[in-house]
Design brief:
CATH class of the largest domain in chain A: Alpha Beta
Strand content of chain B: under 5%
Structural class of chain A: alpha/beta
Number of domains of chain A: 2
Order of helices and strands of chain A: EEEHEEHEHHHEEEHEHEEHHEE
Number of strands of chain A: 14
CATH superfamily of the largest domain in chain A: P-loop containing nucleotide triphosphate hydrolases
Number of helices of chain B: 16
Strand order of the largest sheet of chain A: 6-9-10-3-11-12
Distance between the termini of chain A: 39 Å
Largest sheet of chain A: 6 strands, mixed
Number of strands of chain B: 2
Helix content of chain A: 25-40%
Largest interface: A-B, 43 and 37 residues
Strand order of the largest sheet of chain B: 1-2
Number of helices of chain A: 9
Oligomer: heterodimer
CATH class of chain B: Mainly Alpha
Helix content of chain B: over 70%
Radius of gyration of chain A: 19 Å
CATH architecture of the largest domain in chain A: 3-Layer(aba) Sandwich
Shape of chain A: globular
Shape of chain B: globular
Structural class of chain B: mainly alpha
Radius of gyration of chain B: 21 Å
CATH architecture of chain B: Orthogonal Bundle
CATH topology of the largest domain in chain A: Rossmann fold
Number of domains of chain B: 1
Order of helices and strands of chain B: HHHHHHEEHHHHHHHHHH
């Protein structure tokens, strides 16, 4: 019962975006994928969600996703894309219902409102989606995704949330709120894989972190093991200093203590 | 966390009540269409006669059963076909301005129909026997299918449809189909020219039971196929990738949508020529009235499309009676301002 990506290779034309990346995400955990722009984070998520052609094997709860029908996949995992556009003037609650119909909680009409309440937007239910701000739209899409896999565990199998930068257009309060929602989902037995940009939020919320650089996996492990001066400086191509506040062992990265100067080691 | 204080509006059941309202309105429109005409023959007097047990005169029977009734049935079929293909195409292209007439699918279907009229006699005999009176609608369907496929290929990249490319490609496609049709008109003989002229008027005037039988099956098949696309088109509103993520077999759904649009448009164009704007006005009005959910929008479009076309046909018949206006003029006069109005009012949507 896990999500495994095995030796994933993706090419865009002649450029190799991913050169054999492997990853295992466990239910009950939040797995974060970090790395600089263009390192292949979203491409890796695209392969895991079967949104783009790839070489390699992706297993979901022990089954090869290549052998599953779209509706079988939709019952096991929900995907939050980076940006969402909607073509017609659906209301917010109608958008969330689109997720509900595709999951296995379709017989529970109360779920969309609960999902909206979970992201703090229940009072927006009847607004038109196009009226929302970028951050609100992102939270509505999160509610849609939550409605699709409303029970983190069903029939003894974990459900998965696969998210591409779920907090990218949110303010700090809502960033923390969304990460808490993801942590709750994992605590209840579901699996979460998220592409993340913010290293501090990652350090705070992730159980396991994969660091990608130039289409390869540089490191994979607990935040404390992976978010180190050496690994991050190599990945991001600039001198980064990781610190830890005294009572805790959660590392943090202070941009003030960084310099854009290239590390000699990473050339 | 915010408490649940808002009651979600249920536009879906609202839209379902519209099924019944529109079905009732369609019945009324049908009665009006049978009642009104260039002769004094009226449905009400004939019904009164029948009620008294009197026999209908020869003329009454001809007017009712051989002129007005096939014309009514064809109007219902064509109106429903045009409106449903509009709604399906807008869902497929994720854009409220996609319409088979505007983006060149109608022209492609027209080219197919003209090809069949002019060059149909050159086909091997077994093929003519096989297709029978279905040849023109079938050729129009092929033309519409080819142009829809081409249009989708040209204007969609990585699951996103560019509106500008779609409209421009539609113009190019329309021009190309027009030029090829022109060549065919040039080489056509006198009898074929007559056929082409009547066909090109865009009118229900030539309606006959033979035409109803030739286009009806394809239209009904295409509409039934389109009616099953509701959930898929709803998902597609989120983009192709997300539609796949919520469990929709996107490729299959797109193929069915393209075939249904081509079938409905092709058959409608084959029997009635180019009747524009039904496909854009009807779904737009319904989205304003009851929301964009395709599970109800498609059926409501079929009903309202039939109503509008029948009423437009009644107008076309009475404004300059005993002559009649080509119905394409009536729909364009009513529809073109709505198209402009969408452009002005809904600029935010157009930019999608």
């Amino acid at each position: 019962m896990s999500l495994t990506a095995n030796n994933i290779r993706v090419s865009y034309g002649k450029r190799e975006a991913l050169r054999g990346v492997s990853l295992t995400a466990l239910p009950g955990e939040v797995t974060a994928i970090v790395g600089p722009n263009g390192s292949g984070k979203s491409t890796l998520l695209g392969a895991i969600t079967a949104s783009l052609p790839f070489h390699g094997r992706v297993g979901l709860n022990g089954r090869d996703i290549g052998t599953l029908k779209p509706w079988d996949l939709a019952a096991q995992r929900a995907v939050l894309p980076q940006a969402s556009r909607l073509a017609f003037p659906f209301t917010v609650v109608e958008v969330v219902r689109l997720g509900l119909q595709s999951g296995t909680a379709g017989d529970r009409p109360e779920v969309p409102m609960q999902a909206l309440a979970r992201v703090g937007l229940a009072h927006y239910a009847n607004r038109t989606f196009q009226e929302l701000s970028g951050g609100e739209a992102q939270r509505v899409m999160l509610a849609r995704v939550l409605a699709q896999v409303w029970a983190p565990v069903e029939h003894g199998e974990p459900r998965w949330l696969l998210l591409d930068e779920p907090v990218s257009s949110l303010d700090i309060g809502h960033q923390l709120q969304v990460m808490e929602i993801l942590r709750d989902f994992a605590r209840a037995g579901g699996g979460v894989v998220a592409v993340m940009h913010d290293l501090n939020l990652t350090a705070l919320s992730a159980d396991r972190v994969a660091v990608l650089a130039e289409g390869q996996r540089l490191a994979f492990g607990a935040p404390g093991e992976v978010l180190t001066d050496d690994i991050l400086s190599r990945a991001y191509g600039c001198a980064l200093r990781v610190s830890a506040p005294p009572p805790e062992t959660i590392p943090y990265i202070l941009p003030h203590a960084a310099s854009a100067q290239k590390e000699p080691a990473c050339v | 966390m915010t408490e649940i204080d808002a009651v979600p509006r249920d536009r879906l059941s609202h839209a379902r009540t519209w099924h019944w309202i529109l079905a009732g309105a369609l019945a009324l429109a049908c009665i009006a269409s049978l009642q009104v005409g260039a002769t004094d023959v009226a449905l009400s007097t004939m019904l009164a006669k029948l009620a008294k047990g009197e026999a209908l005169s020869q003329m009454e029977r001809v007017v009712l059963f051989d002129i007005r009734l096939p014309r009514l049935v064809m109007g219902v079929l064509v109106g429903a076909a045009l409106a449903v293909s509009g709604a399906a195409m807008q869902g497929l292209f994720r854009n409220p301005l996609a319409d088979p007439g505007i983006v060149g699918v109608g022209a492609g279907a027209g080219l197919g129909a003209i090809l069949a009229i002019v060059l149909g006699a050159l086909l091997p005999v077994w093929m003519i026997d096989l297709t029978g009176n279905q040849l023109v609608p079938f050729a129009a369907f092929l033309g519409g299918w080819g142009s829809t496929l081409l249009l989708y290929r040209v204007s969609t990249r990585h699951g996103r449809t560019s509106v500008a490319t779609m409209l421009l490609a539609g113009i190019a496609l329309g021009a190309l189909a027009g030029a090829l049709s022109g060549i065919l008109v040039y080489i056509a003989d006198d009898r074929q020219l007559r056929d082409l002229t009547f066909w090109g008027l865009g009118s229900l005037a030539g309606a006959s039971w033979a035409k109803v039988l030739s286009a009806g099956p394809l239209i009904l098949l295409s509409i039934s196929a389109a009616l099953m696309l509701g959930r898929g088109l709803n998902g597609l509103a989120l983009g192709e990738a997300t539609a796949a993520h919520i469990g929709i077999d996107v490729q299959r759904m797109k193929s069915i949508a393209i075939l249904a649009v081509a079938g409905a448009t092709g058959a409608a164009v084959a029997v009635s020529g180019g009747i524009g704007f039904i496909g854009i006005v009807v779904p737009h009005l319904l989205r304003l009235a009851s929301g964009p959910d395709h599970r109800t929008l498609l059926l409501n479009s079929a009903l309202l499309g039939a109503i509008l076309l029948i009423l437009a046909d009644v107008i076309a018949r009475v404004v300059i009676a005993p002559a009649e206006l080509p119905i394409g003029i009536v729909t364009a006069v009513l529809g073109a301002p709505v198209f402009l109005w969408i452009l002005l009012k809904r600029r935010g949507l157009v930019e999608l």
